[in-house]
Specification:
2 domains; two-stranded antiparallel ribbon; 2 strands; 61% helix
Length: 125
């Protein structure tokens, strides 16, 4: 379209009718370019806004992770410095003996032994 308009402008007659045609063609071309410029400007603004939002979300995420790591670190330091007032101590120990029949051809009895132990928290002296 631009090439056609420029060609018609350069090689047209220099009559008054030709001048008005050239001016109207140039004005239409100018209006077209203004419209395209406005569209591109709007797209650029939208992209800037979307980029700013994405960057803000990233900053919030990294800040949340940093705060979480800081809280965990402080809790560990507190536990290590103050110490735990409780210890794990054996609460109950069970020893079980038993015999079971096996599926072998000899009909032997197999002896089973089990030891189970439970633990509980106890205050440190």
């Amino acid at each position: 379209m631009i090439r056609l308009l420029l060609h018609s402008w350069l090689f047209s007659s220099h009559s008054l009718a030709g001048v008005s045609q050239q001016q109207s063609g140039l004005s239409r071309m100018l209006q077209f370019f203004k419209k395209k410029y406005q569209e591109l400007k709007m797209k650029f603004r939208t992209l800037k806004i979307l980029r700013a939002r994405r960057n803000a979300r990233r900053r919030i995420r990294t800040t949340e992770k940093a705060v979480q790591a800081l809280i965990i670190g402080l809790a560990l330091v507190l536990v290590l410095l103050v110490g735990c007032n409780y210890n794990m101590v054996p609460h109950e120990t069970k020893i079980e003996y038993g015999t079971t029949a096996t599926d072998s051809k000899n009909d032997k009895l197999q002896e089973k032994r089990f030891i189970t132990q439970s633990w509980r928290w106890s205050k440190h002296d």
